[in-house]
Amino acid sequence: MKEETTQYEKAHKTEFDRQLGQCQGMLSTKLSTVTVMKPLAVGGVQFYTVQTYRRYDRNETGRATRSEDTVFLNCMINGEPLQLAIPPKVADTIARQREALTTKARKASAKQKAERDKKAGIVPGFMRTKTKKGGGA
Question: Does 59 lie in the same domain as 4?
């Protein structure tokens, strides 16, 4: 069984390295290291390294028409190394979901503020009466 695991690990590492090698020369971020400490140190400390590469599709004039981001993630989980090459479709999905959560949070916050203002008797700006400028007679 150990031999199968070793072959799988080699194949996985080879695929990660192959994809990373294909991204060399592309626009990329700096390698970022993130340390995550669990509350009360339960589960220890986890280290992650993240780097994103961007590939552009270009039209016949050489102008960029579309871009795709591939995210490379390295981490140690329970003492075992894990390397993931997150493909563009998955990276896009993660970005869309984050943006959707941000939008939902902003809307909820705005509704709460509007409700507080209403209870306090504050009239929203768009409902206030406008005065004419210039003061003509």
Answer: yes
Q: Which of 32, 23, 25, 31 is nearest to 70 (CA)?
A: 23
Do residues 73 and 105 both lie within one domain?
A: no
pTM of the complete model: 0.69
Segment 78-135, tens digit of pLDDT: 778 889 999 999 999 999 999 999 999 999 999 999 999 889 988 888 877 766 666 5
Query: Letter for the amino acid at 79?
Result: G
Question: Are 76 and 82 spatial neighbours (Cβ–Cβ below 8 Å)?
Answer: yes
DSSP code, position 29? P
DSSP letters, 34-61, are EEEE-GGGTT-EEEEEEEEEEEEEE-TT
Buried b (16+ CB within 10 A) or exposed e, 50-68: bbbbeeeeeeeeeeeeeee
Tell me, yes or no, whether 40 and 77 share the same domain.
Answer: yes
